[in-house]
Amino acid sequence: MHTLLSFDGEVLDSSTTPDALWYGLCTGQRSLFHRGDCYVVGAGRTDLSLSGLEQRALEQCASGLLFKEVAFALDVSASQLSRVLRAAAMKLGVPVAMDAVRLVGGLRSGRRIALSSLTAAERVVFELVKRGLTNQGIASVRCTSARTVANQVAAVLAKTGLPSRRAVVACQVSSAFNTSAAVGRREGSSSSS
Fold it and tell me: Is 125 exposed, middle or buried (0-12, 13-18, 19+ CB in 10 A)?
């Protein structure tokens, strides 16, 4: 039986603990294969194990620290940190560095965010921030002003207790609310007007 892992790092159907899975990914004993809407965890290659710097960079970015804070903490430049994250993502079998950060955030954090305290509009904004959109990009999708979006993002951060947009990207959601469907409805309705 294969372990399935969501794009947000949630172990979907295995007796493997997230910590054991993360250890296997770091040491190259496990690797990820993209399959549809999740990753399949399979046997790895030890020549693709993560370096200590790659592991720390992913973990610190996944914890919600700002990019420049992670670079400073690791004593590397921002461009070096970008290269480290891209290399780590490639070793993990994840095509985009930010997806690797999101995945690691899900594996490494025991904290799950409940969206029940958010309004419907804030849930949609949460999902769009999680996808990496800027306030202006969210405003375009939602047909609102960037200032309204900024207020909604501030409300999302306050209600969830997350420190930054980066933390939103890295967090796991424990709500059954399907934010993707809500985003799709809104996007579809704005294009038809």
Answer: buried
Cβ atoms < 10 Å from Cβ of 68: 11
Tell me the domains of the chain and their CATH numbers: 3-108 (1.10.10.10), 112-192 (1.10.10.10)
- Model confidence, pTM: 0.55
Mean pLDDT of 96-107: 77
The Cα–Cα gap between 54 and 174 comes to: 28
As a whole number of angstroms, the distance between CA 189 and CA 159 comes to 27
**Number of neighbours of residue 41 by Cβ within 10 angstroms:** 21
CA distance 36 to 150: 33
Strands 30-35 and 3-6: unpaired
**Tokens (6 digits) for 129:** 């921030």
Out of 29-33, 39-43, 69-73, which region has the weakest mean confidence (pLDDT)?
Answer: 39-43
* Helix 120-130 × helix 135-142 angle, to 10°: 130
